[in-house]
Amino acid sequence: MKASVPATASHVLTSKRANRHPLLKYWDLYLMVLPALVFLLVFKYGPMYGVVIAFKDYNIMQGVFASKWVGLQYFRELFMFDEFPRVVINTLVISLMKLVVGFPAPILLALLLNELRLVKFKRWVQTFTYLPHFISWVVIGGIAVDLLSPSSGIVNKAIQAFGGEPIFFLTSEKLFRWILVYTDVWKEAGWGAIIYLAALLSINEELFQAATVDGAGRLRQIWHISLPSIRSTIIILLLLRIGHLLDAGFEQVLVMYNPTVYDVGDIIDTYVFRVGLGTMQFGLTTAAGLFKSVIGCVLLVIANTLARRMGEEGIY
Q1: 105: which DSSP letter?
Q2: C-beta separation of 133 from 140 below 8 A
Q3: Could you give phi then psi for residue 313, rounded to 5 degrees?
Q4: Where are the alpha helices (DSSP H) in 46-136?
């Protein structure tokens, strides 16, 4: 009969922790998450009580709960506006253009950065590409106006130097949407590439070594190893992007558009800002925001369901 080995102190602590309630078992991890939860509760879920303004004739003096109920009146008014279908179409078109052009951009940038072997140069490039994320759209709008000005902009100066005529970029209905798309890509591609670059760095290096031994070049390694390895990350970020399909970039459009491009550049947010807040119709603006949130939630649920049916994890 074998003698029992006395349990060490670490074994005793481990066994005690395993028998605890999950909240007590992982208290240190929950403590780390607590600041994020407080942020969500205070700044995201707390203000949600204001959604009832969409169903009330809101009066600042009476407050949210004392104001008179009007039911779906503001939703009917919103959908009866002659310009509302146009701004919805503009919002969808601009968002889809940004999705098609802007979503692959950080993936491509991350793949290119991952191929760089000079560490210092790689860090410099990564720094310069994600710095625009921290620049305000007000500043970027001013830069765009200066660069694209038909009289003094450097772009039109170059066009004129080659014998062309100056182009009114920011007043052209054909070009305005593309300006929104490419300025958004320039601002956000570097920041989005950080996530994909982190996913690429987690790939087992032995896979690339084995592929090299088998004679696979860099392009084949990217196609057969890098992209499949970050597929789950791509799917999750795509689902989140679809959930914000009706967010076409309020601040960007507000800074860069003008009355001559309202037909192609006026989105839901800017239209509500002009029509609703300009006339102090808070119920109308809240109804538009709630409309966007409901549509975004429906799109997210549909996209997540399709992703799970295709074998992906999804976001829930």
Answers
A1: H
A2: no
A3: -75, -35
A4: 73-80, 84-102, 104-115, 119-130
Give me the phi and psi of 181, to 5 degrees please: -65, -50
**Amino acid of residue 59:** N
Report the candidate in 294, 173, 285 with the shortest Cα–Cα distance to residue 245. Answer: 294
> Model confidence over 74-103: pLDDT tens digits?
888 888 888 888 999 999 999 999 999 999
DSSP 225: I
Beta bridge partners of 59: 63
What distance in Å separates the CA atoms of residue 40 and residue 77, rounded to the nearest whole number?
A: 32
Quick check: 280 pLDDT over 80? no
Pair 244, 296: CB distance under 8 Å:
yes
Query: Which of residues 38 and 11 earns the better pLDDT score?
Result: 38
Enter the tokens of residue 1.
Answer: 């009969």
In the three-class reduction of DSSP (H, G, I as helix; E, B as strand; rest coil), residue 100 is classed as helix
Provide the whole-model pTM.
0.83
- CA-wise closest residue to 304 among 235, 245, 233: 235
pLDDT at 97: 94
Distance CA 198, CA 211 (A): 21
Residue 289 has φ and ψ, to the nearest 5°, of: -65, -40
Q: Domains of the chain: which residue ranges?
A: 1-52, 72-309
CATH superfamily of 72-309: MetI-like (1.10.3720.10)
- DSSP letters along 59-79, please? ETTTEEEEEEE-TTHHHHHHH
